[in-house]
Design brief:
The structure holds 2 protein chains of 2 kinds. By secondary structure, chain A is mainly α. Chain A has 6 helices and no strands. Classes of the chains: A mainly alpha, B mainly alpha.
Chain lengths: 168, 115
């Protein structure tokens, strides 16, 4: 077992613990959010191991930073007031959900992952995840999707302000 | 610079995260936690996109084709991130609006559109 593999296993184990913690400790949304921060942060390092530097950085900045701050902010504002965040009765659908999840894991694992078993790393371009190469592709071949996503973000800004200011 | 990590390891990690997110959406009745589980599923697909972009299975004929194939996965991840950011802002706004509308509600009580 090489050093790369050991690093991957440690990172993946932490990511899986984070993912499981989000669901298992969901009674308390703050704990759940902190497990999600752990997962997103380690996921950024998994992107680094794939050679995608820019995306790893933006994963940590956008997800572990901005989005999770938003989540914790909303939890903080809601939690003072009510039992809104503590409605956790599962009325018997818990075991079924876990069973279906395990079934999905094994089905997809057997059907999709088995044929890919022998695939290991191919020699890849040096410029795989650098900002230069991503910028070059993003502003040429993907210019239209880039512009459309900027319009989507604008709609998101206006929509969230509208939702926040509206009197019901 | 190739790595000796099999592709399947990344896919199993992503599959585990996706399944955990799916279970959480079904099990948890708390709207914020359900939302977090959806984010978890989005990130699992992001990891899959990146892993497939890095380990190109079909061998590309020319360097340009290889670059195109490697970049399209990363472009997808960028757009998923942008859409997820917009989705979180609007979704949490909706949750706050629902909370203000009816002061105490779980996900199961939001059934006014049930036929």
């Amino acid at each position: 077992m090489s050093g790369n593999q050991i690093v991957f296993i440690v990172l993946a184990a932490i990511a899986c613990i984070g993912a499981a913690g989000v669901v298992v400790f969901g009674d308390n949304p703050v704990r759940s959010a902190l497990f999600l921060v752990l997962n997103f942060f380690v996921l950024g390092f998994l992107y680094f191991t794939l050679g995608a530097q820019l995306l790893g950085i933006s994963q940590i900045l956008v997800y572990a930073g901005a989005i999770m701050v938003l989540f914790l902010f909303v939890i903080m504002m809601l939690q003072q007031q009510s039992a809104f965040l503590r409605s956790t009765e599962s009325d018997g659908r818990g075991p079924i959900a876990w069973l279906l999840g395990a079934t999905m894991f094994m089905t997809v694992g057997a059907a999709v992952l088995a044929p890919l078993g022998g695939v290991t790393g191919s020699p890849i371009l040096d410029t795989f995840g650098t900002p230069q190469s991503i910028g070059k592709v993003l502003f040429t071949g993907y210019a239209w999707p880039f512009l459309i996503s900027s319009v989507l973000l604008l709609v998101g800004i206006v929509g969230s302000i509208l939702l926040a200011k509206r009197k019901f | 610079m190739g790595t000796d990590i099999p592709l399947v390891w990344y896919l199993v990690t992503a599959l585990f995260m996706f399944v955990m997110g799916g279970i959480g959406v079904v099990v948890r009745r708390n709207p914020v936690v359900v939302f977090m589980c959806i984010e978890l599923m989005l990130n699992a697909t992001n990891l899959t996109f990146l892993a497939f972009a890095r380990y190109q299975i079909a061998s590309a004929q020319t360097p340009e084709a290889a670059l195109q194939a490697a970049m399209s996965g990363q472009m997808m991840v960028i757009f998923v991130m942008a859409v997820a950011a917009a989705e979180v802002a609007v979704g949490l706004g909706i949750i706050m609006a629902i909370f203000r509308l009816k002061n105490e509600a779980g996900l199961d009580d939001m059934s006014t559109m049930r036929g």
